[in-house]
Amino acid sequence: MFLILLMVDREEDQLFLMRLYEENEKHMLRTARKILGQYQYTDDVEDVMQDAIETIIEQFHKNNKRIRDGDTGYIVTIVKSRAFDKIRKNALARGREVHVKVDEDGELVDLEIVDTSIPLAENVEEKDELGRLAVYIQMLAPIYRIVLEKKVVFELKNKEIAKELGISESTVSSRLQRAREQLREIIAEKEGEEVGY
Amino acid sequence: MDIDRLLRDALILANELEYCTDEPVEPLSERAERKIRRMLRNPERTYRRMTRPIPLRILRAAAMVLLALSLLASLAMINPDVRAFVQKVYKEWFPEKVTYTFAEGDEEDLDAAECDLSFEYIPDSYTPFVHNEYYNGGRIGFKNESGDMILVLYRNAVEPLAISADNDEKEYSTTTVRGYPAEVYLAKTESKMNHIYWVERGIVFSILSKLPKEEIILVAEGIEIGSKN
Predict the structure, then answer these.
(1) Whether A73 and B16 lie within 8 Å, measured CB to CB
(2) What's the DSSP call for residue A148?
(3) Alpha-carbon gap, residue B205 to B202, rounded angstroms
(4) Nearest alpha-carbon partner for A96 in B133, B151, B82, B165
(5) Residues B10-35 pLDDT 10s
(6) What is the pLDDT of residues A66-92, one digit of tens each?
(7) What is the Cα Rg of chain B in Å?
(8) How many Cβ atoms from other residues are within 10 Å of residue B210's Cβ?
């Protein structure tokens, strides 16, 4: 009986994850292609998709199957995080060989996280609190936004974030603090009030 | 809704707004698609494979630590001048490059991405031509009319760094910059640039230029590390 229940459980998991993938596949792909394309790393799209699937399965297990239908934004955030991890690893690997192999034009290869934001919504004032905050988050410097996502969305410890981003724990702490400060400044500027994020 | 929950939802929504559009997207290759579906068909097995301990990897890491420690101790014993440097930096020589691995930083270390550099001394004929900021540092370049450059690179001394320094083409020596031990690689041919490296307050600095060593040191000594904030 137990075995049958286990099999039913597994089949449900499998069907759920498969459906989740099919529903979100295009958004996942678009995210991976858009981010990797900025760094001419489109060859890595397939690797990033597989990394993201592994993370989704891991989150599904660790968080007691908390991923739900309609979690498109969360899944896209996972793909974004894995894409930036891949870029960092590539830059590091490439940087190891070419960091000081500067050509006559002074060209070096390293990672520069550019702003990936789409043009901001014009009708900010018509949005609710969550929508406005999302728009303000798009104005955050990318180095802060990435650290904030890893901390708040994926609930990683500072040590884990430091390892993923290749920075020290104290840098993670200061970037988190700076992220919140910058967000407060943006909100204060746009809405003319102090908010406690 | 509590603040952290609101912030989490807003971070996710910000990504959704950016990436969940109707733009057409090129599909995955059939092979990659098959692989992903295989992973999803048996999530249990995928998860087990991901979390399986890898004894060989652990053994290899342990061996590397032992090797690093023994080399570190030998280096510090051989030359007192480099003792202070190797306390935070582990260096490996290869025929065509030198790699540096940095010890974990201190609380007082600066974040290179937050630093704003200014220069007290740059030779008169050089003017700024590039200034890039990266997630972990940046580079600032100056050029003269002949196209000769001074490139200043700075990044957090966290990720390992390899310096392409062909030992047949570069002459190695040590010096100090503002009291910090520094390493100099002087090019033996005119077409190559001289390099100087040092670690200061958690940041590894590199200056590359065809200028003579003494003048590069003047540039290095004249760097002022400010904060963007």
Answers:
(1) yes
(2) H
(3) 10
(4) B165
(5) 999 988 888 888 888 888 888 899 88
(6) 676 668 889 999 999 998 888 777 765
(7) 24
(8) 16
Whether residue A178 and residue B114 make contact (CB cut-off 8 A), yes or no, is yes
Question: In angstroms, what CA-CA distances link B40 with A29, A32, A92, B43, B178?
Answer: 16, 19, 30, 5, 57
A79 interaction partners in chain B (CB closer than 8 Å): 19
Give the CA distances from residue A112 to residues A80, A108, B45, in Å, rounded to whole numbers and listed in that order: 15, 11, 37
B31-42: pLDDT as tens digits: 899 889 888 888
Q: What is the dihedral of CA A66, A72, A78, A79, to 10 degrees?
A: 150
pLDDT in tens, B142-195: 999 888 889 998 888 876 666 655 556 678 888 999 888 898 888 877 777 888
Nearest residue to A25 via CA among B40, B42, B28, B39:
B28
Whether A108 sits inside 8 A of B27 (CB atoms) is: no
**Which among B2, B11, B28, B161 is the top mutation candidate for probing chain A, defined by the most A β-carbons within 10 Å of its own β-carbon?**
B11
- Which of B111, B105, B152, B100 lies closest to B128, judged by CA? B152
| ipTM, interface predicted TM-score of the complex | 0.77
